[in-house]
Amino acid sequence: MDSITTAASVVAAGLAVGLGAIGPGIGQGSAAQGAVEGIARQPEAEGKIRGTLLLSFAFMESLTIYGLVVALVLLFANPFAG
Amino acid sequence: MGSLSFALPFAELEVGQHLYWQFGNFSIHGQVFMTSWLVIGALLALVVVGTKKMERDPRGVQNLLEFLWDYIRDLARTQIGEKVYRDWMPFIGTLFLFIFVSNWGGALVPWRLIHLPSGELGAPTADINTTVALALLVSLSYFYAGLSNKGLRYFEYYVHPTPIMLPFKIVEDFTKPLSLSFRLFGNILADELVVAVLVFLVPLVLPVPVMFLGLFTSAIQALIFATLAAYYIGEAVEEHH
């Protein structure tokens, strides 16, 4: 692979994970905020809230993971490697 | 680039290297097959041992199996609905247990002690082929569930609130297996990579909490895969009024 492709792939891999982490980060923050408010208002519902929160966390996290998959493809299985 | 490997005794990190088995015209990833067979064998042994001498008051393995049965039944019943959940419980349960034991097996068993000529043993779910196969099975089964329960009326689902939804629902049929497989694959591979990189940088103490976090996310991912599979099946068999 020529050096310009390598450089572009490495930069793109970094951007894919980095930018992909912004949205889910904000989303997880506001989800956690909602859960904490819910628990403060109704402590007896903690178990249910925790379960739902973890499940929705995993969904948000998978968005970053898609970015990670793209980064891994660029680093280890680059289709432009030639 | 192709593949990457560092050489420290317990901190090898290999991505994209596989133990290839030639099978006719296909070359298959042997290490994935070996670990999946081990997982299947472990699950079978557990179930056989647990159901051999069943008692009215469950003890030991039988107790564990009954707990799992309850857990999977609740999962299937809340997602699929009272009417047909019983038909799909074995499928959902198999998915959940296979993925769960694969994920934990990949993290807990010291596979690095066994040397392979190429590639390394690990969680079968850290290979994209396994997760795509599982996700396609889910796709097939929700089509089957919808068609066998409602016949051709299943396709009403595509135009359900309004016909405008038709293209989105068709695209959804393709994105469902895509996101199911990538979510599981990415999460498990990311867990393994993070632990491997940390072990490579700081071989002592520091990786342990990350390993626990990895165990936790692996368990959640198994739960999510099973829940989503059940939810898709439930969506397909649901009656619209």
Protein model, in words:
The complex is a heterodimer of chains A (82) and B (241). Chain A contains two helices and no strands. Chain A has 82 residues and is mostly helical. Chain A has a single domain, classed as F1F0 ATP synthase subunit C (F1FO ATP Synthase, Up-down Bundle). The radius of gyration of chain A is 18 Å and the shape is rod-shaped. The N and C termini of chain A lie close together (6 Å). The model of chain A has no long low-confidence stretch (mean pLDDT 89). Chain B has 241 residues and is mostly helical. Chain B has one domain (20-237). Chain B is built from six helices and two strands. Chain B has a two-stranded antiparallel sheet. In chain B, β1 (20-23) and β2 form a beta hairpin. In chain B, α1 (30-52) packs across α2 (60-80), α2 packs across α6 (207-237) and α5 packs antiparallel against α6 (207-237). The longest helix of chain B is centred in the last third of the chain and has 36 residues, at 166-201. Chain B is globular. The interface between A and B is medium-sized, with 19 and 20 residues.
